[in-house]
Structure formats: structure tokens, C-alpha cells
Amino acid sequence: MNSLTDLTIARSRDGLDKGDFSAVELAEAHIAAVEAARDLNAFITETPELALERAMASDERRAKGAAASAMDGIPIAVKDLYCTDGVATTAGSHILEDFTPPYESTVTQNLKEAGAVMLGKTNMDEFAMGSANITSYHGNVINPWKLDDGKDRVPGGSSGGSAAAVAGHLALGGAGSDTGGSIRQPASFSGIVGMKPTYGRCSRWGMVAFASSLDQAGPMTRTVEDAAIMLQSMVSHDKKDSTSVDQSIPDFAAALTSNIKDLKVGVPKEYRLDGMPGEIETLWQQGIEWLKAAGAEPVEISLPYTKYALPTYYIVAPAEASSNLARYDGVRYGLRVEGDSLDEMYENTRGQGFGAEVRRRIMIGTYVLSAGYYDAYYVKAMKLRTLILQEFQQAFEGVDVMLTPTAPSPAFAIGEKMDDPVQMYLNDVFTVPASLAGLPAISVPGGLSDEGLPLGLHLITKPFDEETLFRVGGVLEEAANFTAQPSYLEGVA
Amino acid sequence: MTYLIEGETGDWEVVIGLEVHAQIISKAKLFSSAATEFGAEPNSQVSLVDAAMPGMLPVINEVCIEQAVRTGLGLNAKINLHSVFERKNYFYPDLPQGYQISQFLEPIVGEGVITLDMPEGPRDIGVERLHMEQDAGKSLHDQDPKRTFIDLNRSGVALMEIVSKPDLRSPAEAGTYMRKLRAIMRYLGTCDGNMEQGSLRCDANVSVRPVGEKELRTRTEIKNINSVRFVMAAIEYEAERQVKIYEDGGSVVQETRLYDANKGETWNMRSKEEAHDYRYFPDPDLLPVDLTQEFVDEIKASLPELPDAKKQRFVNDFGVAVDDAATLVADKETADYFEAVAESGNAKLAANWIIQELFAVLNKDSLGIAESPVSSDDLGKLVGLIADNTISGRIAKDVFEVMVTEGGDPAQIVENKGLKQITDTGEIEAMIDALINDNPDQTQQYRDGNTKVTGWFVGQIMKATGGKANPQMVNELLKKKLGLG
Amino acid sequence: MHIPGDSFRRLKNHLTRVKVVDKATVLNIAKLARIKVSESETENLAGELTNIFDWIEQLNEVNTDNVEPMTSVVAMAMPSRTDEVNDGADAERVLQNAPDRPADAQGNPLAFYVVPKVVE
Questions:
Q1: Contact C94 B277 (CB under 8 A)
Q2: Of A195, B183, C34, C105, which one has the greatest count of Cβ atoms within 10 A?
């Protein structure tokens, strides 16, 4: 411990500013960590040379007193869903094998301009479809949190590679993406902070699309403050994305005042599930107590429609995905599997290029949009979405923030829950409602399960009120004092 | 005249609806900043968005929205302040996204009307809707025996699809509708109407029914017809084909057909009728198009004078015959040309000269009015010379021919060739006197009551003056001399 | 609210109407989506999709007769771009990742994408 890889973003920035170490040293330490941790399979593509190049440039800027931002010189992991100029981008799929974009996504461009040092592209569920990082063409990611049973656990998904990289101290921060919980749920499973800003805060331009009306970029870090610092360098109003919102951007880190006095914290009773593991319920209660102790006022609220959020999500997201993924046809980029006719070429390419979960979701999406089912499924789901959004809007008239668990369980062993897709989908039961309503939300490590695996607490706020999220998240973090480290780190330390 | 197909069982009526795809005039594409110019090198006008690279997103071109609204207003149509872009999903190599962004349930323009000037009188044809959509790329099937090449230059170019109601009843009406729609869009500057370059394409829905039958029968759709002449020919062929099927006891199958211009036939496009399921849904990468009434009003206020209004003005203000006015306004360049010529002072003469003399010249060489060898300025001067009796209409034809072949200012030509009309009565009187003297037989015939011989006298004078004598003046003087003699 | 395991199965038993996605439907969807599925996969998918749609069926508990479908997540007007050409003039940029390219007689790549012959 106490090596450069154990710092936070904030402390690294301070260290760099003071000259305690250079960005190149910081990058070298992380490059070594990435190489040493290949058994976690967190990265699809490592970019050590690029990292050193950027680190050197960062040191030069700092030497001139011209650091670009608090992220200047900070080594980060980037989910392989962000298109990166000249660096292979696969979205965890065979169909995008050998695809090297000649362009840089807006979010990674923003991070680059902020001076962040990209260590590589992280593993993920194929096209971000999954909650365990077990659908990647590039293999499963292993959660750095291990128990004595010797079983490998999933890091959660779909941003499982970024989660494992941050939890395993391979990077100080990770760029993730969240469609129904793909940042927050792996953050919970991996004992880190994962934050999804308001839909429209971060540009989707250059992010491989899963479900356009839900996809949103966000930071994955080891502290709430780091999440605020990293988000600052990801957001922007982008004219290339019609759903990017022109909204003033506050100083997110400045929101961490620890002052939540008189803040009303909604506790939605419908999130209390029959038969929910006791450890989840206990932690949730603990979270309520922590906020109360800090001066906030817990209020029980009711969100009756959120119970329909998950099935709604499993109509909307596959529907959009089925259309978004139609462009992978073997003609202009990516895999092509030849066939005797055009249709055969299409079917071979897409049949072999997409993995089972992606094929399944494309099938679901195609079905719910097809003639005769469109009204019954897609339109119905979009109406439910209206109800869910309205319900949140009404609830936020009475409360400032909501507190729920992040996931209904701790990380499970690879191989579990795999026979029944619906069981797997239930992992996102707490995170999906905020996604459907486009609301900002954060997962903060709250404690450990009975077995010793991390569990997250989940906060949701109003649109564009990320500051409240960070402020309350900071209080939770302080109260939880989550200092446990993944066993993997002991092994490599 | 109603267009009817005479069958063995009786007369049949044809019912036609047209779907016209019109390329919007804009520099950049509907959702990207790539160029729209015709004839560029393959794939040289293709942005990352047009090639549907991963993570690329559409952002709408504001001019395309304006153009669609402008066109809707030109069709006297309802402008929908709220409209929605949807995705039409299907796989084809010239469709990179795997879907076409189009408008489906909520188009930007609703019902309108186009008035056709038919020989039997005006006919109002309903417009069902107008919506915006992306064009597809181009598939080249003739470059390689086993493979099809794809050029995406057109991919994403903005189109308007303008759908008529099934109100058209003859190939001629369909042709007139196409020409009128094209004229309106050219007046508006929203589509150049160039069918050879594909900026205007037409799908025709055709069905037939016995005269008197109220219900519509099964229609076929003839896709992608690229000239007005072919639209009419294809409909004519298709209607007769359908009548024959019914009269032979068969039934028409709803299908998509193509028109083979060489054979003059339509043929079924798909061997196996593939079930289409486009799975339309609102494009989540875009928001609804919400316009303000002020925006629409501003465009409305800026609309140019359209063919119908212009025609009325030509009739009312210039005294041009209705048919001539209709001919002149058929395209904006001709109308502008006419107005310039009419400034010479005699609008009716101007109309006649354009329709009879100039069109004959243009048609002979298949020229457009923009390529006319005679400028409107010069033709105006020529008309002026006729109007003020400087030259006769007959001489004017000679001058016009010189203008066509050699060019030049008509007044100068008249001057150089000495074609100026002889209006000196003394000169003509002297010639008549000499004629009477030299031709006592003809003079006697006249005096015996054979007034037809006047023509001979006039002819002689005209011959002697090279046609420059004012024929009216010659007539009058002749009467005076012979009658009094 | 449904949670993993027993309660999910309990819910399934409560369903009055079970919608079955059969193999023919799977094949039809696969055809629409241009995805080749094997015989055994067809069987599996039919079962999985039946399961998933059983679960989704609960949405019918909610009366949505007077509810407008959500049209956009963000409350704002659609932005637009000006009509300027400043993109797309680089054919290689969009062609460089193509898995196949036609070539001229000298073997130089042509600026086209290429697919198996489309029969018209």
C-alpha cells in the first residue's frame, strides 16, 4: 500500500501540483499495475505508449504552470464503448473486431483535453448488454473482491472492466456508461463510487450506442470527490448530439460541503422487496440513520409505478438496441462473414458477430417493434415511462434526494444466475427507474455483506441537480468510512 | 374528356395516386454537414454520420425544415407545428444505418391541394401529406459480375415525399400534376426538379374499376419513375394490363412493379413477395420538430408569386389569353422571360412571339428558355419594333431568324439590312401608278368588279419593296387609286 | 416488486395469460433482424422469449388509456445545424475500415463499399 496506485484523483492532483511525483511516474506505476493484473481481464486494449506520451505532455504543461484541469496527468481506464481515434474500439463484441475509429468520442476528447492519461480500453459486456460482464467476446472480467471459497466473482456490468480497474487500483478513475445501471451496479459490486449524471449532461457522440434514450456516460472512482472531479472533465454541451443539453455546468467538487441539514431524503417504500437479503435491508437502514445523524430528514415516500420499471426497460432498451445495432452489417467496418447472397452475408455476419445476449436482445427488440405488437409493447412501455417520470417529478416536489440500495445482492460467482435471463435482468431493479426518467444517480460503497463483499447505497436526485448527489454522497461516504480493500490488492501488494 | 379504357365488358376508369420524392435544395445533408452536389467522385460526400459509423448521431439541418415548410405553404397545405422523425427499419447495403430516418405518423405537412389546368377546365387534386426523409445511397450493379458496389454520396440527402390523394384519373392528369408540382417547387426554390439527376422521382399507385363502381380496387405501385413522359406511359400500360387481367377473369395482385422504358412495360419487382415490417418508432437520437406559428408566418410572408397567381395576373394585367398565360407560367424562367419581353409595351404580342416563334426554335434544338439564343431584352426590342410599326410582322420573322442564327440587336439588324418599313405614301403611290400603267389588263379586271386581283397588286408592291411596304397602307392606296380611276 | 428466485416463479404462476413465442415466430424475427440462428438455438430462444414476455405481461395491470407516450427524456427544443458543408469530403476516412474493397485492374482499391451481388 501507499504506492502511487493507492492514491485518489484528488491526492494525485495535489501530489503532481507539489511535484512529489510526475505524471510519467504516476502513469508508469499504473501501467505496471495493469500489466500485473491481466488475470482480472479488465482491459481489452492496453495503451501504455499513448499513456506515457500523454503523461509527458502533462508534465510539460504542469512545468509551465499550465495544468489543463484537476484531471491533468491522472491515469484513467476507458470503457471500450467510447470510440478513440486510432485506438481499437470493440464494444466487447466480435462484430467490431479490428475496428479502429478515425475519430474520438466527445467524452474521451473532453477527458483528453483535460489532460487525463488513458491507460487503455476496458472490458465490458458486449454492447453494454449485461449486469455481470460475462457477455464480452473478450472474456469475463474478474472482480478483485474475492472470498475464501476460491470462486471468481463477477464485477457487475456492463462497465465491469472499468469497475475492476478502479477497484483493483489499476487506474485512478474509469469512464463508464450507464443504460440501466451499468455504472452504478458494478460500482456496488466492486466497492467503488459510480455516478450516472442527468441524461443529456454528457454527449453521446462517439459512444457506441446501446439504447439511445437511456445511454449516459459517467465516472467510476474510489471516492465521491473523485467522481465530482472526473465528471467535471466529461460533461459538455455538444452540438453534435441533439439530446445534449445546454445547461450551466457547476463546480461539482465544490458541492461537497458535508452540509445536508434539513435536506429531505425520500425513502421509497416500494424498493423494500419481499425476501430481500437482510444485509441489503440492514445497510439501507444504516444509510438512513447516517443521513439523519447528519441533519437530514428521512421521509417515507411511495413510487407505485417503479415496480413496472424493469419490464418497461426490457421493452424500451432492446427496441432501441435492435435498431441501433442494425448498422453492424459487415459492409462498412467490422466483421464480415461471407455468404452466397447479400442476405446470407448479413445473417452470417450478425449471427456469428453478435454473442448470445446481444442476439437475444435484438430479437426481443425486433419483436416488440414488429407489426401487431408495437402498440401492445413499445407504446405501452413509453406510456409507462411517462408515468414513472411523472411519479418521480411529483415525489421530488416533497424531497430533495432519494436513498435506496444499489443492487439487490452483492457480487455473485461467475456461473450463477446464468440459466434464466430474467433473473439476471433483476440485478438492475433499483437502478433502472432513474434511467428511465433520465435522472442523475450515484452508488456509494456503504459496507460489506455478511460474507465480506461490498454493497452500495444509491442516491437519486432531480434533473441537473448532481451537486446534491455529490453533497449527500459525500456525507454517506464519510459516515460509512468504507476502508475495506479488495483481497486482490493484498495479493499484489 | 374523361379518360376511359374501353374494355370488352365496358368502360374502365383509372385511379392514380402519386408519391413524389423531391430532393430538397440545401447545401448540406438532412442530418450531416456533407455536401449534396450531384456527380461527385464516389464516397467523396460522406460524413461519419452518413456512413453510420458507431456512435454517430444525427443533427437536423435547419434549412431543410424551412424548405419543407415553404413547400407545404406553396401547396396550400396545413403545416403541422409538431412533427416527429421516426426510424424505418430495413436492411439494404445502400442504407448504412439499417434504418431510414423519416416521418411516419406525424409528418411536417398535412393536407393540401394542387390545381391542374386541364383542357376541360381546372381540376383540384388533393395532397395527402408531405414529410421529410433521408435519401439512400446508390447501388451499382454493373461494375462487377458478382458484386454490387456501394456509393453513399446520396445517403442522407434530404428528401420531401409528397403523397397525393388517389384523385388523378388519367395519365395526362398524372403528367400535368407532376409538371405542376415541379413548377411550384421550382418557383419556391425548394427542389430543382431535375429528373435526370434523380432530384425528382415518382412512384405511381394505379388501380382500375368499371365506370360507376364506387370502391377502389387493388392497386399496384410502380416505383422510381424518372420522367414525366414515363409516368404517363407507365400508368397507361399498367391500367390496360389491369383491365385485361380483370376481363380475363383474374385479379390484380398488390405488388411493386418497375417500368421498363425501352419495352414500354411494367414488370413485377420482387419474385417472392417479401413481407415488409419496417418497425417504425420515434428516433430516440432526435427530439420532435416543434415550430412556432411565427416561424411559419415568416416563411409565408417570404413566398414568391406562385404559378396560379402569376397566371391570373398575366390574364388580368396583360390581357394574355388564359391558355397562353398557363403556358407561360409553367416554369418560372419562362414567366420571367415573358415579363421581361412584355416590358416592351405589347404583352399580347410578346406572349405570341414567345409561344409561337421562340418555342419553335427552342423545341427544335431541345433547349430550355435559359439557353435561348435570343435574350429577353432583344426579343423585347423586336416586339417593340413591330408595335411601333417600324417593321411588319413578316419582316420581324426575318429579323428574328437573324437574331437566332447570328445574334445581334434587332434595331441594328433592321438598320443594317435596310428592312425598315416604307411608310412614305408618296413613294408607294408612285409605285402603284407605275404598276397601273404597266398592267392595263389587271387594272381592267379590277374595274370590271374582280376585286380579288387586289392581292396580285399588293403582292407586286411587296415584291418590289422587298416586303418593306406597310401592307395596310398599300391596300388603302390601291383602293383609292383603282377605285377612283 | 419482484426479486430473484421464488417470488419470480410465484408471479409467473399468477399470470392468467401465458403468451408463447413459438419457433416459427423466432425464425421470423431472426429473419427480420438478419441473424442466423441454429435449430437448437431457435428452440432455446423460443423458451427464453416466452419467459421474458410472460414477465413483461405484468405491464397490462396498468391502465394507460389516457397517458401520452414519452417522446423525449430531455425537456428542450430540438437543436439544429446551419446549412453549411464542412464534413464528408474524405472518402478514405469512411472507407478505411471496410472489410472488403473492390480494386481496379492494377489492384488499387476503389472508393466503393462492396457486397455480394444484389439481384434486381
A1: no
A2: A195
Shared domain check, B246 and B135: yes
Query: Which of C58, C74, C76, C112 is the best residue to mutate to test the A interface, defined by the most A CB atoms within 10 Å of its own CB?
Result: C74
Q: Give residue B485's pLDDT.
A: 44
- pLDDT category at B392 given cuts 50, 70, 90 is confident
Q: Which domain holds residue B18?
A: 4-299
Q: Which fold has domain C7-61?
A: Histone, subunit A (1.10.20)
Catalytic residue among A79, A112, A146, A417: A79
Q: Is the ipTM of this complex over 0.85?
A: yes
Is any Cβ of chain C less than 8 angstroms from the Cβ of A385?
yes
What is the spatial distance between Cα A32 and Cα B326, in angstroms, rounded to a whole number? 82
Q: Is A22 a catalytic residue?
A: no
What is the DSSP track for B280-296?
-EE-TTS--EE--HHHH
pLDDT at A490: 82
Q: Do A213 and B55 touch (CB under 8 A)?
A: no
A177 is catalytic: no
Q: Which of C78, C85, C94 sits opposite B43 (nearest CB)?
A: C94
pLDDT score for B1: 61
Cα distance between residue A416 and residue A184, in whole Å: 20
Q: Respond yes or no: is residue A158 known to be catalytic.
A: yes
What is the reported pLDDT for A191?
A: 98
Q: What average pLDDT score do residues B258-285 get?
A: 84
Max Cα–Cα distance, chain B, nearest Å: 101
What are the residue ranges spanned by the domains of chain C?
A: 7-61
DSSP letter assigned to residue B254: P
Of A22, A58, A131, A158, the catalytic one is: A158
Chain C residues whose CB is inside 8 A of the B53 CB are 94
Of the three residues B369, B388, B417, the one that is the final residue of a domain is B417
Q: What is the mean pLDDT of residues B407-419?
A: 85
Q: Which three cell numbers stand for residue A326?
A: 442494425
Please tell me whether residues B85 and B110 are part of one structural domain. yes
- Residues B261, B224 share a domain: yes
Same structural domain for residues B460 and B380?
no
pLDDT band at C17 (very low <50, low <70, confident <90, very high): very low
C98 pLDDT band (50/70/90 cuts)? very high
pLDDT score for B273: 47
Query: Which domain-ending residue is among B283, B299, B315?
Result: B299
Shared domain check, B449 and B398: no
Long-range contacts, B84-87 (Cβ 8 Å, 24+): B84/B282, B84/B288, B84/B289, B84/C71, B85/B60, B85/B132, B85/B282, B85/B283, B85/B286, B85/B288, B85/B289, B86/B280, B86/B281, B86/B282, B86/B283, B87/A323, B87/B279, B87/B280, B87/B281, B87/B282, B87/B283
Percentage with pLDDT > 90 across chain B: 73
Q: How confident is the model at residue A2 (pLDDT cuts 50, 70, 90)?
A: low
Whether residues B288 and B400 share a domain: the answer is no
Between CA B121 and CA B292 the distance in angstroms is: 38
**Is residue B38 located within the same domain as residue B106?**
yes
Q: Choose among B27, B60, B91: nearest Cβ to C84.
A: B27
* Residue B261: other Cβ atoms inside 10 A: 13
Domain containing B447 — which CATH number? 1.10.10.410
Residue B369 DSSP label: G
Chains that touch B (3 or more CB pairs under 8 A): A, C
The catalytic residue among A12, A105, A136, A182 is: A182
State the first-to-last Cα distance of chain A, in angstroms, to the nearest integer.
6
| Segment A369-401, tens digit of pLDDT | 999 999 999 999 999 999 999 999 999 999 999
pLDDT at A1: 41
Domains of chain A from N-terminus onward = 8-261+478-492 (3.90.1300.10)
B277 with B323, same domain? no
Q: Is the pLDDT of residue B414 over 90?
A: no
Q: Cα–Cα distance between A230 and A218 in angstroms, integer?
A: 9
- pLDDT computed for residue B203 by the predictor: 96
